[in-house]
């Protein structure tokens, strides 16, 4: 395999403008971020529908199975490569019920469930004496409240939403450092998926004459409601967001504060170039996010030492500390291009992460420190007291410079139901990455066949070879699955 790749040179935009967040708003429908170019020129204040439509229901569903055999521990043809077989499947749904009895009130409930349909929890008691002689396991239904909120409008001027809600910030496609609301990060393999949000009070005031909105949030972590004492106003998170449409540009400026978290200022821009009247540029969309934080929510690893986990010796960070209290810049810049005549869509996006590492060794140390912390055998030595355990979120994006690209071609070879796509992700700091070219065929409206492969490159101990570790039934790592065949079937269109 030819182990080379193109490095894109992208220059971060001046932060003189900000973008509108693409989220499901008070009386509107779900909207995904940066879905096509050119950018929509919809007035953001027109998103508040006043139609009373009664009760409706629907949802999204994932129903697919994929055969994933491949070579583990080496490249095909190498003596170290082992052929491994596996079957992946996904069966999950988010079901919603939405009622709007009149134009000033709305209620929405969304439930998430999926296979396995039960979850096993070990019997745990605060008092060890209360435990039975033999530990028991309790099975509970795998059902989760995804959303539950009410919408109220006051004098057609103020729109309120209270409850658990999806309310993500940001305009980027693969990464979204500007999203200070959502509880989970974006999944690059499914970037338009709805992400879970917190319990919050959200208030929006539209300014139709300016084509602008002002939105405030009061946010509560789920953990606050599991406590024996009620949360206080001091513990809440507070966010303020202003967005405006200027020509083809959607601009947003926001801020976030919560005790024990790094304060953040967020600016985003999403714009097309149709106003330039230059051939070709009308199909290009540019988007960018910039975050300025005072300190960091992730921990920093320093030094190196060896820790034994089970029977394995792992090199880990010698200590984990908090980042210094100073201002840090995190940012993305990306572009999308759409050509209807060629049935082509291209998106590429660069992420600068100041809390990542610029060397290969630190990525391995971060990965192993998470393993040691999970096994409860890691204790930080010296340095600043971090106040918590080094976890997955601290090592989720270990690279300082990152790049993701997605190429999609529809109606391949003139065949309406045949398409092709390639997802390519890279850690430009440790020179690792993976690429996934796939073909898809829809012989019937509700059935899709797909086939292709995934290729993981980079030195052992770098980000993506570590990410794509093959694990046996006991959870032990057997090596990187360098080349994987993906042959799958998707049942249904994904919405009902």
Distance between the termini: 42 Å
Coarse structural class: mainly beta
Low-confidence stretches: 1-40
Order of helices and strands: EEEEEEEEEEEEEEEEEEEHHEEEEHEE
Proportion of residues in helical segments:
under 10%
How much of the residues is beta strand, in percent? over 45%
Shape by Cα distribution: globular
What's the gyration radius in Å? Answer: 24 Å
User: How many β-strand runs?
Assistant: 25
Mean pLDDT: 85
Main beta-sheet strand count, sense and barrel state: 18 strands, antiparallel, barrel
* Total count of helical runs of at least 4 residues: 3
Account of the protein in words:
The structure is a single chain. The chain has 496 residues and is mainly beta. The chain has a domain at 44-95 and 230-237 and 244-491. The chain has three helices and 25 strands. The chain has an 18-stranded antiparallel beta barrel. Strand 21 (418-427) and strand 22 (432-444) form a beta hairpin. The longest helix has 15 residues, at 360-374. It is globular, with a radius of gyration of 24 Å. The model is unreliable at 1-40 (pLDDT under 50).
């Amino acid at each position: 395999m030819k182990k080379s790749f193109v490095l894109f040179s992208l220059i971060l935009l001046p932060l003189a403008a900000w973008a509108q967040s693409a989220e499901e708003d008070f009386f509107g429908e779900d909207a995904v971020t940066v879905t096509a170019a050119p950018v929509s020129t919809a007035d953001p204040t027109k998103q508040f529908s006043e139609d009373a439509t009664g009760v409706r229901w629907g949802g999204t569903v994932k129903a697919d199975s994929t055969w994933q055999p491949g070579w583990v521990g080496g490249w095909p043809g190498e003596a170290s490569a082992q052929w491994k077989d596996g079957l992946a499947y996904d069966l999950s749904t988010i079901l919603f019920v939405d009622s709007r009895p009149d134009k000033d009130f709305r209620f929405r409930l969304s439930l998430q469930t999926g296979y396995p349909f039960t979850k096993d929890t070990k019997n745990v008691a605060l008092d060890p004496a209360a435990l039975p002689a033999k530990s028991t396991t309790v099975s509970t239904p795998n059902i989760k409240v995804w959303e539950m909120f009410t919408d109220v409008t006051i004098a057609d001027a103020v729109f309120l939403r209270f409850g658990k809600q999806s309310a993500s910030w940001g305009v980027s496609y693969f990464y979204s450092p500007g999203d200070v609301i959502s509880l989970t990060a974006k999944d690059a393999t499914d970037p338009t998926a709805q992400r879970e949000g917190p319990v919050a009070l959200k208030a929006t005031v539209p300014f139709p004459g300016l084509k602008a909105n002002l939105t405030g949030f009061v946010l509560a972590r789920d953990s606050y409601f599991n406590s024996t004492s009620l949360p206080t106003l001091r513990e809440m998170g507070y966010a303020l967001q202003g967005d405006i449409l200027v020509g083809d540009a959607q601009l947003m400026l926001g801020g976030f504060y919560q005790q024990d978290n790094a304060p953040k200022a967020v600016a985003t821009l999403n714009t097309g170039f149709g106003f330039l009247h230059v051939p070709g540029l009308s199909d290009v969309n540019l988007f960018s996010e910039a975050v300025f934080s005072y300190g960091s929510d992730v921990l920093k690893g320093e030094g190196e030492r060896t820790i034994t986990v089970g029977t394995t010796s792992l090199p880990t960070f010698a200590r984990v500390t908090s980042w210094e209290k100073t201002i840090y810049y995190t940012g993305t810049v990306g572009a999308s291009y759409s050509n209807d005549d060629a049935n082509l869509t291209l998106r590429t996006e660069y992420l600068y992460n100041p809390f990542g590492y610029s060397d290969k060794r630190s990525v391995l140390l971060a990965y192993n420190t998470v393993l040691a912390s999970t096994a409860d055998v890691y204790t930080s030595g010296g340095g600043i007291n971090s106040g918590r355990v080094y976890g997955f979120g601290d090592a989720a994006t270990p690279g300082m410079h990152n790049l993701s690209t997605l190429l999609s071609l529809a109606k391949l070879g003139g065949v309406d139901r045949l398409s092709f796509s390639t997802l390519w992700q890279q850690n430009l700091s440790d020179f690792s990455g993976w690429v996934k070219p796939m073909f898809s065929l829809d012989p019937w409206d509700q059935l899709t066949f797909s086939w292709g492969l995934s290729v993981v490159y980079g030195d052992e101990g770098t980000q993506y070879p570590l990410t794509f570790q093959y694990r046996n039934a006991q959870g032990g790592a057997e090596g990187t699955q360098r080349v994987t065949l993906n042959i799958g079937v998707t049942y249904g269109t994904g919405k009902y």
